[in-house]
Every structure is written in C-alpha cells, then in structure tokens.
Amino acid sequence: MTSNPMAGAVRRGRQYVPLLVTSVLLVLMFSVGSVQYDGFLSGQVLLNLLIDNAFLLVVAVGMTFVVLTGGIDLSVGAVVALSTMLSAWLVERHGWPPLLVIPLVLVVGTVAGFVMGWVIHSFEIQPFIVTLAGMFLARGLCYTISIDSISITDPTYTAFAQTRIPLPGDLFVSPSVLVAVGVVAVAFVVLHHTRLGRNVYALGGSEQSALLMGLPVARTKIAVYAVSGFCSSLGGVLLTFYMLSGYGLHAVGLELDAIAAVVIGGTLLTGGSGYLLGTVLGVLVLGLIQTLISFQGTLSSWWTRIVIGGLLFVFILLQRLIVGRRKV
Amino acid sequence: MTKHRLFWPAVVLAVLLLANLAFTPDFFAIRIKDGHLYGSLIDILHFGAPLVLVALGMTLVIATGGIDLSVGSTVAIAGALACLHISEAADPASPGTVVASVAIALAVALVLGVANGVLVARVGVQPIIATLILMVAGRGVAQLVTGGQIITVTSGPYRLIGGGYWLAVPFAVLLAVVVVLLTALLTRRTALGLLLESVGGNPVASRLVGIRASGLIALVYVFSALCAAVAGLMISSNVSSADGNNAGLWIELDAILAVVVGGTSLTGGRFSLGGTVLGALIIQALSTTIYTIGIPPETTLVFKAFVVITVCLIQSPAFRAKAVRRRSSATRSARPRPLKTEEAEA
C-alpha cells in the first residue's frame, strides 16, 4: 500500500509480535511452574521437554514449510503412524536390518508427500482435501499391515531408545533430541538462507506474483509437501524409538498439535510470514502445558486439549489484529 | 439422464448395494419382526441417519465456501451433556428429563455454532482454522463433561431418539427425513439457498448487491452445530451411553466425504442436498459392505481415501482439462467427436 519506509519498518516490527508473545508466555509459564512446584526449576525438566517432544518438533518443522506457502498438511499424524508401523513390521516380522528399514521409511514418507504435492499442484485441488485423503490412506495402510500394536525388541532400536547422552551439570538428552535439533538447524538455514526458502515465502505471500516473477512455483509447492512428508516419516522414526512399537493409533491428532505449534509460533496461516524458531517455541509451549498439567497432578489429561484450544484461539485473534482485515 | 447431478452418486450407491447382493443373497430382504422393520437396507438407513444429519449441516457450510471441522466434537459434547443430565436426574425415564437433556444439548450446540460463526463471519478467520479450535478443545470439553468415563444411561424415552422405532420405522430415520425435508423446503422454496450459493460463489459481489453475507455465514455454522448435536443425541441414544473420547470421532471427515461424493464442490457456490443424502448413504453402505464381505473394518479408510481422491479428481477442472486434451489428441486422427458430455459432468 505505502512506500513509506517507516511504515514498512513498523509492519516488519509487528511481524515479531506473536513471536514475542510466545516467548513471554514461555517464560511466564516456566516461572509459574517454578514458583508453584518443587523440582520444576531444573535444566532437566527443560531438556525433558525436548526429549518427550522431539518427534513433534520434527513434524512441526515440516508443517512450518507447508503453512508458510499458505497450504496445510493433515496427513502428518497418519504418516508418523505409518512410519512406526512399517518400521516395526519390517524389523520384527521380517527381520530386516534397521539400517535398511530407516532409510526406506524416510523414502516412503518423502514420496507420499511428493505425490500429494504433485496432485495439489497439477490438478489444483485444495491441499486440505488431498492431504485428508493421504491421511485416510496412511492410517488405512497401518491397519492393513496389522490391527494390533507390534512391539519392537530389536537390539539396535532398544539401544537407541535407552541411550542417554550426558551433558555437563548432571543433565542428559536422548539421541532423538540431537536429531531434532539437527533438523531444526538444517531447516533454519534452508528457510532463511537459501533460494528455496525465499521461494517458499514468496509463494505464501502471493502465488500469482510469484508466478509472474518467474519463480518455480510448481517445484516449490511440491517440495514443501515432500519436506513435510520427510519430516513426518523422520518424526515417525523418532516416535518408534520413543515408543518401541508400531501401532495404527499412534500419533492420533498429531496434525492438530503440529498446526497449533506452528500457529502459536507466530506463522501466519495465510502464508508468507513466520519464523522457524517460532515453531520451536510453539512446540516448547505445548510441551510445557503438558508438563505443568502433569506436575499439577489433579488436573486430568484432557485439560491439555482445552488449554491448547484456548491458546490457539488467542493466537489466531492476535494474528487477525496484526494483519488486520487485509487478507480476508 | 447421465447429465443429472444425482446420476453418478445414485449409480455408485446402486452398484454398492448390488455388490452386497452377490455376497448375501437376502440383502434386500426386509422383514417385520415384533412390529419393527428389519433388514440390511433398514440398517444402512438407521446407522446412516446421524451421518446424513451432520453431512446436511456440512453441505450448507461448504456451500458458503467454508468448512466445519468441529462437528465431531459437537457430536461428542451433545451426547455427553444429554447423558450426564439424564444420569443425574431423579427419574431418568420421565419424558420431562429427556426433553430437558435434549434442550441442554441443543442450547450448548447453539452456543458452539455461534462461536464458530462469529469467528468466521465477524473476525474473519479462515473457516478451517476457526473450527479447528473447537475440534481440538471440544474433545477435551466432552471428556470434561463425562469425567473421562463412559456414562451409561437407562431411559426409555431417550433410547427412542436413536434406537427406538415409531410406526415400525427407526425413529432416527424419521427424524433425519424430517430435518432433510425442512432444510430442502427452507433453502429451495425460499431465496435462502440462492443467497447461500451467491455468498459462496463470490462473497464480495454478493455483498455489493446488498446480501448480508456475514449473517448468512454465521447462520450456516449454527445450523451445522445443531445438526451435529442431533446426530450426537442419536449416536449416544443408540448405544445408551456417552463416550467423550470416541463418539463422533472422524465423523467430520465422513461428512465432508459425503458432501463431496454428493457433488457439492468444496470451493462453494453450489450445493445439492439430495446429493449429500446419497453421499452419506454411500459412505454408510460402504462401511456395511466391508463388514459383510469380511474385510477388516479398519481398512475402510483405504477405500475412503481412493473414493475422495477419485471424486476430487473428477471435480477438478484442471484434471478434466488434461484428461480431455489427452483423449481428444488420441481420437483426433481417428474420428473427431464432440466432448460436451465429459465437460458437462460433475
């Protein structure tokens, strides 16, 4: 609208508001927890947040790519479940070596994402409905493999699950945390410092303009769904380590948690604006809610859902205030 | 005849039912036992009634270009509230208690619908996100109402809503038929349907011609929530219990599927109530078929995935353009023929 540099600076500043709010919220929740409960204020509680939510973090990173283009991926939870199922089935029932199974699972997830992206782009069907079909398909495939849970006793998996990496100060993390942090670092560089990342933002800002500017819209659009598929399957591999089982009912509703984390992290659902580190904060907020509720002890687990819903509500209202009615 | 918008859904339903005949020869048999109608077809109608209702509400929401993901949660909340009220009442079997419990469930659904409507129409949040909030929080609320337990009730009048019979026909079917007829009357015999379609087709243009888009949009979310609440009452009444966790789980997806299969475009601007009813019956018949053939019911999801994607591809102008282009280039050398029928489809 305006070429006034001040207005531009103000608008850019406003973009950081959700991020700021999320950070303040995080600090606030942690302080309340520390004051209220003994043993809350420790580095290990913080690290446990990462240990328990490593898979969610990885999935949410993939979701950030998709949401930044203005799309949505409802299949992530189902792809995570399919990955756990496929891993457990191949390793336990067929005796395949884990070193072969894990890359295979990652390829399956990436291809699934790629195909969904391709359908969305080439047939101009809403991402919502295509990934919904993907969700049905992936969950259904879980059940065709096995209706019951398959537990994993493979030594490689159990070793990976039980390994604790000591940190200075009597702290420890699991290998999954390292994987998740690695994914975040790579995604950060890709999103904020490469051409693909710029294209993702451009596509989310306005697909029409991106097309007119000669940006590779098709490639970028398909790429984000492939990235999300890859992240989901990697999240599935991490969840397999965490749960040591494969089950069609693993990660039910994970897509909602991932979307919630992205929104709470300040990424606009209309696309084009947001930060990867915001998503990390969003995942931490979700994890902290769970931790607080478990520390509280008397509140039941369903309060988690209600609080997450309430937070989503607040942050979506905040987004509306920030962008105004520009993008109705 | 093939150009009629209900033709393909009707064909699919007929094929599904005939396929059942091959596996169970007496599939079409309808008997009268204890003064009630019995038979597989009656079962499809009976168990399909809640889905028909939810899909009906969803149709109007989709006609305005929106979507309502929160219906599953509304189903759970309505069932939970009604069962809670009945289980705590002094006399669970009295009609007064049941009427009160139904009223409570509908009133709360009204509030939930208004909340969705205000978020979408006033605040301007994308429908998928606005209703996502209630979808996430609603399950929690339903479990809060039931205290995480499954509430079981024994109440004759309440049982009637979803599990009872009236004039030998399942009461739920009658209820669904009445709601469908009323909706059809309201939308097709008054200007309401036209207004909804115009809002879905082009919100800006319809505002410029003086249609109060925001009021209409809010209205369809309220209607959708009320339909979901009645469906929730039926489901909980049929099993005489309320399960906050599993009642209506994924019914939003089935409802969207039914709407899409029925020929209503997800982009809004056009809707077909008859198509939606057929769509819902197709989904229910599919589930029944899978049970009777003996495939594990959990794999229904795979079938549904293929149904959704096929229907969406057929509806997609881009896909049809590509398919038509391919076919025309293949037939051009042999015999040019008009392609009007393909384009008129869907």
From TrEMBL, chain A:
InterPro entries: ABC_transp_permease. It is a multi-pass membrane protein. The chain crosses the membrane at residues 16-33, 45-67, 74-91, 97-120, 127-152, 172-191, 222-243, 276-296, 302-323. It holds the Pfam family BPD_transp_2. This is Simple sugar transport system permease protein. It comes from the Bacteria. CDD domains: TM_PBP1_transp_AraH_like. Its main location: membrane. It comes from Kitasatospora paracochleata. The keyword Membrane applies. Keywords: Cell membrane, Membrane, Sugar transport, Transmembrane, Transmembrane helix, Transport. The keyword Cell wall biogenesis/degradation does not apply. It is found in: Cell membrane.
From TrEMBL, chain B:
It is a multi-pass membrane protein. InterPro entries: ABC_transp_permease (IPR001851). The keyword Cell membrane applies. It is found in: Cell membrane. The chain crosses the membrane at residues 37-62, 69-87, 99-121, 128-151, 163-186, 216-235, 247-266, 273-295, 301-319. It holds the Pfam family BPD_transp_2. Keywords: Cell membrane, Membrane, Sugar transport, Transmembrane, Transmembrane helix, Transport. Its main location: membrane. The keyword Signal does not apply. This is Simple sugar transport system permease protein.
